[in-house]
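S.,

As promised, the adenosine-5'-monophosphate-propyl ester run. Input:
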Amino acid sequence: MTPDQQDVYEPPQNIIDDAWIQDWRAVEAAAAADPQGYWAERASELQWSHPWDKVLDDSEAPFYKWFTGARTNIVSNAIDRHLTTARRNKLALIWVGEDTSKVRTFSYFSLNREVEQMANILKAMGVEKGDVVTIYLPRIPEIFFAMLAAAKIGAVHSVIFAGYSSEALSTRIDDSESKVVITADGSWVNGKVFPLKKIVDEAVRFSPTVENVIVVRNTETPVTMDSVRDHWYHELARLPIAKGHCPTVQVDAEDPLFILYTSGSTGKPKAILHTHGGYQVGTYTTLRYSFDIKEEDRWWCTADPGWITGHSYLVYGPLLNGATVLMAEGNPTYPYPDIWWQLIEHYGVTGFYTAPTAIRTLMRFGDAWVTKHDLSSLRLLGSVGEPINPEAWRWFHHVVGGDRCPIIDTWWQTETGMFQITTVPTMDQKPGSAGRPVFGQQAAVVDEAGDEVPVGTEGFLVLRNPWPAMMRTLFKDPERYRQTYWAKYPGLYLTGDSARQDEDGYFWIIGRTDDVIKVSGHRLGTAEVESALVSHPAVVEAAVIGLPHDVKGNSIHCSVILANGFSPSKELEEELRNHVAETLSPIAKPDGFDFPEKLPKTRSGKIMRRVLRARALGQDEGDLSTLENS
Ligand code: PRX
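Predicted complex:
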């Protein structure tokens, strides 16, 4: 055992007294003995307009199906069922603008009105069940309305993070053959306007399927409107077509709810597909148990809805639990590095879920920014997206949580839809460990051959059991789904992460084992950054690696072969940085560069990233005998 693994934080008594799951060992054992029974019980806490025939159909594994034969709609459970109870007047959403004097609040009743309006408009535009609606919106309430409206009428939403470039946006619109794009004039980013509509204009020039663009007025900046294709949302909302009740379409449990593009090992992003039935059961249950969601809670998940964390634990999970959720438009350091603490204090946030990179960023500004605020409303803290280093964990626990709030570290992926490895509040917490597999799941660490490795040994993290919120396939690419996740070890889900397990059964995530890197919690494929680089005239070839970074977790380092006539300079580095930001996204902006004569490759032409990493870190390059020109 390493010293870190001996560092154990026991849950405080008041947390134990309140928790949904008191005797977690008993629940864990019962779910392990009968996972399907466990999930059926959880599912029966939600509404279905027709019951399921089978909890799990694994006859075509790895294309698993859950709750087959059942009819439902995630919106029936996220909104409609609350409208017949006292919750109809409870706050569903509190939105705070980057300018914090701008606040909008929605009860479940008024959220429903907004969703019906958006849904009516989509229907009037001819959007039907199964059609893909692309959503390119910032963190404003309309992103909730748009996602829920699409789901309500059985359409499939595809949210693209509103920081992607026009090229990235157009590739994704094209791939999904989306007919409608919902966007805004712009978004506020640290006091400046990011021109969303302009980016959409550029993107749809290459996306012939798009017939209608709905534009939400947000920043009030001038935009160009195409008289046929583009429509202001507030003008549509005044039309008769937008008015009136819009029924929630009952769909098959296995009908698609959304696709979400994420980065993989190749340059082509993967469209992860999730469905109504299993996804609602998975996100509802995991949020409820891990974060102990109660009627009086005020839940704040800082993730952007453009990522899976925003889908599962900002939008759907909280609403499925009838909770009050806070969404903030701004960034954690703007205008001052205490804006988040101010919001927690002002709105009485009880559950606060964020990413290690944000914690490390805020930690650097010193404790005084935090301690000047009364954060006594907080009960539970959460972490997601990358391993949290014990130092940041302890700071979060001590300074933000006042030593009272357990930190729920949650390991999962876009693909898994819901937490897979985490704790419930009554379990001991270990700084740096994500915890234990969720009830009903079994995880393992295996070697190259698929055999389980001894306790404490690093290996490939795999999941043994199917789970309700698992992706069903890669949209339009079932073979890539099978190959990527199920081919290496038949019957086991390959996560792409390395990990080790300790004697108590806790998992310690180490990092990715493939060409995916996490930069400030954002998932990027090295191949995507490489193809952005080679689209610049100065670049002939590029190899990208992640290097350890104190705040971001990883930084992006690029080894670039220059074209004839170009030579290395600081100006060129800056130009390449901006080029990647523009062609892919500002989140992918490279940090460091080197300009070698040649890239180290194996004889079969594979780039030896290990050698690049050693060079960039000034370490020994190790065994070079397989190098092409050794
Ligand atoms: O490497 C793991 C890391 O994030 C990857 C999944 O990224 P994405 O699909 O963007 O989803 C992020 C939010 C769920 C994983 O393969 N990761 C996620 N959560 C953790 C983590 N690594 C360590 N600890 C975590 N809690």
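The first helix runs from residue 3 to 6. The two ends are 40 Å apart (CA to CA).

- D.
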